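Molecular record:
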Amino acid sequence: MVDEKAKKAAIKEGGKKGVDMVGMSDLGGVKFFNLSVETPAGDMELLECVLEGMNAPVDEGAEERKGGAGEIAKMLLSAGDSQVAFLCHVPKALQEATPSFSIKEWVEAVAKAANAEVVSETEEIVKLVAKGDPSKEQFPLKMRDAAQAAGSAYIESKGLIPEEDSDDYIPEVPEDW
């Protein structure tokens, strides 16, 4: 059982990252994110709290905006000392609006990279866990990074992340400036 202080910290991290995702989505049109989160430290219950914070409706009257990412697809990755927890959330409407995308393929790409196993699956949410094993050179941080790279490669291969403009003009700054 996780204590209330840890849950609040996880919800807070999710709320902050959620509003950041919404901002990036609004500016750049990105609807699919691979995101490492720290607070859960590989704990699935705390990772669920992060998702709760991300997907919470935005309180327009609040001093600080939080959440609002319920309509955005996200693969959350959290490494602890002994395991990596993954939580994939893809809203049904987004799955239907993006025929080139498959939640199953995204999850498989991440699972394969980290040797993770699905522990729970619904239409919109898939939870995975990868156990670390130092004797086999399987360290949770390295596993998380490999899974994040694989997840990003998958969404890039589907054209769901805009390509960077290589022709952006960057002015040279004079040496004496």
The chain has a mean pLDDT of 91. The CA atoms of residues 19 and 145 lie 23 Å apart. Residues 4-28 form the longest helix (25 residues). The two ends are 57 Å apart (CA to CA).
